[in-house]
Amino acid sequence: MLSSSDFASASWELVVRVDHPNEEEQKDVTLRVSGDLHVGGLMLKLVEQINISQDWSDFALWWEQKHCWLLKTHWTLDKCGVQADAKLLFTPQHKMLRLRLPNVKTVRLRVSFSAVVFKAVSDICKILNIRRSEELSLLKPSGDYFKKKKKKDKSNKEPIIEDILNLEGSPTTPGPPVSPGLYSKTMTPTYDPINGTPASSTMTWFSDSPLTEQNCSILAFSQPPQSPEALADMYQPRSLVDKAKLNAGWLDSSRSLMEQGIQEDEQLLLRFKYYTFFDLNPKYDAVRINQLYEQARWAILLEEIDCTEEEMLIFAALQYHISKLSLSAETQDFTNESEVDEVEAALSNLEVTLEGGKADNALEDITDIPKLADNLKLFRPKKLILKAFKQYWFIFKDTSIAYFKNKELEQGEPVEKLNLRGCEVVPDVNVAGRKFGIKLLIPVADGMNEVYLRCDHENQYAQWMAACILASKGKTMADSSYQPEVLNILSFLRMKNRNSASQVASSLETMDMNPECFVSPRCAKKHKSKQLAARILEAHQNVAQMPLVEAKLRFIQAWQSLPEFGLTYYLVRFKGSKKDDILGVSYNRLIRIDAGTGIPITTWRFTNMKQWNVNWEIRQVAIEFDQNVSIAFTCLSADCKIVHEYIGGYIFLSTRSKDQNETLDEDLFHKLTGGQE
């Protein structure tokens, strides 16, 4: 028989600090425990000893030295490795966090500090009524990010607290499986698809989101434009290296907020991280579309992405139009909703789906890949040669372009055949100057081949440009996305076309507008205020009839058509190289860019990727592509885990389909992004 002294020697004292919710100071509680006590039993002992009756269900143990949560309550202390010297904290898993949204509004809400960030973001998006949470993530900005903002607020004598939308009463605790994001084809719309206002009667039926209609409007409506002074305060000219440093702050999706050193009530940025916006639907996505529009708007205004002056004016006209409509929409009462028989609509959709659309054209599409044939001008840049375009007869078939000296020689050998799979396609357009050019950067063994094509008119440009964009992704003109792409390009060109015949806006409207709010500070400095206002109103004539949500979607589309769209930059050192380069990560490719000149050196497509891995000891990412191409690089501006997660995340997002009805394979995400560290 064991004596009581023998039994006591197998147990030991453990000190646990308790985070009392109602008291400022943490208290130490000493417990006598043994190694075979499981974590759940330890928590039970702790609560019994504290002897305060309250709901302890959200509390868990945090091990400070190991920087981890003890969430497996059935594990024994021995199995966890907890000994007498362990510093444990008994603390709530859900804590307050301040999030700066893309529309520069700050929301304060309760977030899980113990769940991995991927799950925490999913819960946050449920509260904010944003579908497709996998496209967003949390970014911890550099130390001076918010300081600049506060200086600005002091000069305006406005306390920063006014900006915060408090959603404190809405903890992101696991709710029922039906979240506000989930919908079926027959579900009643949550938002008016024309103006983005909440459809009040349905908000309460289909949403477990705690957003009131008022809060929902704050998130779904565009904010009034910032003053030019505020813009100038926020604006910082950034080189590619500066942009690369900004991207160092993305949190690791596979670890919790607490494990990454995030403090209670800290301020983080909630941003769209991955630039593949799946299934944008005005009926359900008013908040998502508005936040996307705002992220795009700030990227343009602060010149985080480059665009031409002509494009800047279109963005300005759309912003002006959206801000006018948003003001009028907020003052109207939208109680009279148009009754739509959703079941009827769903049945007609199903009918079209079952009939397979237009069956007559289906066979044609399979057997006959369209081709383009026309006279275009071509130019290849060489040193010390002036830009001289020469006319050739071009044929575009499959994913390649062949050109001949003239049409008669079409059956013979072409002068050259260009394979566009994996190439970069950059628009080179000035509508006012009737210049419709396409710049092609075609990957070759030692870098990129640069080729310029010049079209005669809009229609020719739209057809060839759309064909080039599809070919770069490995698709032909037989693909169903070809015609919509042509129409998209044409509509964008028409928006650029400043119609001299259109009536000039009244002087009253010009006086009413503050044009410097809608363009970047650098662009505003180039023009006088009146001249800028007149040019914005001129461009506005082309979009004046657009409904609110369509204007936001058009802004997002125009942003997506910019050459630099969707590129996230990192400073890296390639294996074997003696100098640093910029790595651009996009949804379908990686680009090596010269850090000094900003010129792309090589492109690698994800479709050609065979495998990628990380050597965690030397923090090096290694990637293998088809045709025995392999690259390796170390990350200098960020942890290599961030870049690795970006690549894996984009590959994960490419596996989504509408058939899944929004159930995400979270395990697959962690498998592709975790890197088995």
UniProtKB/TrEMBL annotation:
CDD domains: FERM_B-lobe, FERM_C_fermitin, FERM_F0_KIND1, FERM_F1_KIND1, PH_fermitin. Residues 377-473 form the PH domain. Keywords: Cell adhesion, Cell junction, Cell projection. GO terms for cellular component: cell projection; focal adhesion. The lineage of its organism: Eukaryota, Metazoa, Chordata, Craniata, Vertebrata. Coiled coil: none annotated. Belongs to the kindlin family. GO terms for molecular function: integrin binding. It comes from Odobenus rosmarus divergens. It comes from the Eukaryota. One of its GO terms (biological process) is integrin-mediated signaling pathway. The keyword Chaperone does not apply. This is Fermitin family homolog 1. The keyword Ligase does not apply. Residues 166-190 are annotated as: Disordered. It is found in: Cell junction; Cell projection.
